[in-house]
Fold Probable 26S proteasome regulatory subunit p27.
Amino acid sequence: MTVPSSADLAAALKTLIAQRDALEAEILDLLEILKAQGNVGMTAPLVGADGFPRADVDVYTVRHTRAEVIRKRNDAKALTDRIESELHELHRVAQLERTTTIPTPQAQNESAAAAAPIPGAADHGDDAGLATLAPMARIDAVAPESPASAAGLVTGDLLLRVGRLTAVDTAPTMGGLGALGAYVQQHKNRPLAVVVRRAGPSHCTLQLTPKEWDGRGLLGCHIVPTDA
């Protein structure tokens, strides 16, 4: 059986995300229908105090629309679960593909840095929840005396989660790493929990505060896609 390449998986992932986006757009349209029906939403009663159906709304339309919203929300959740699974598989295959290439001296240095412990970081070991997260990006360089350096980030770290963001939120159809940049800007001078993978299955959580410093940007590190 032919194993899909990372390019094939990325294309399939893009299709899944587009399907989920379309579903979410349809859900918004359905919620607009409920809004037009007296803003009944998903929970307002459709029976009056006298026990009869309300005369000020189209009860059939509301019930049918609510059922469609529930169905599409379930479909969207199933797609989100599948997207997360496919992201994990994409990362696994990409790693296998990279092992077939001869590492450069720079890559070897980054690998050595990746094996080093993070001072003061919380080690989560083989936490099952974190193990399912695919990396959203890789730290390509860290400037001395920057917020990223103060947090304990080093070259080669794989970013699994920044605040609430995961690889799902930074997929190409969601804005890519630009979504991460916008999120960091929104959290200027506010601490963010950052989960990184550095060596093996272990994960560490750091506290990173985006802020102005003597260098460029709010973090002071260069972030690239994992396949860069």
Summary: The domain at 105-224 is CATH 2.30.42.10 (Pdz3 Domain).
